[in-house]
Amino acid sequence: MSHARNAAADLGAEGWRKPWSGSNGGNCVEAKPLGDGRVALRQSTDPDGPALICTRGEISDFVNGAKAGLADFLLG
User: Fold this and answer.
1) Residue 29 and residue 18 in contact, taking contact as beta carbons nearer than 8 Å
2) Which is deepest, 33, 38, 68, 75, by most CB within 10 Å?
3) Spatial distance between the Cα atoms of 42 and 53, rounded to a whole number of angstroms
4) Residues 6+ apart with CB under 8 A from 30
5) Alpha-carbon 55 to chain mean position
6) Residues 7-42: pLDDT tens digits?
7) Which of these, 13, 72, 21, 4, lies nearest to 47 by C-alpha position?
8) Of residues 64, 62, 38, 60, the one with CA closest to residue 51
């Protein structure tokens, strides 16, 4: 991963989306595309907390790997 930013609030309040939202009581990962192609990720319950910044390639690899079942081990 590229790096973590000290506070997601530094990235502004606009543009955050919950692509993986479900019936989990609001505990979601939020994502925000950045102008340079990178993607910021943060915990929805801590919007002023740290944000993980990933390159476009890192996000692409993760999404494609998850679709292929490579992240299934995370579920137990």
Assistant:
1) yes
2) 38
3) 9
4) 16, 17, 18, 41, 42, 43, 44, 47
5) 11
6) 777 888 899 998 766 666 667 889 999 999 999 999
7) 13
8) 38
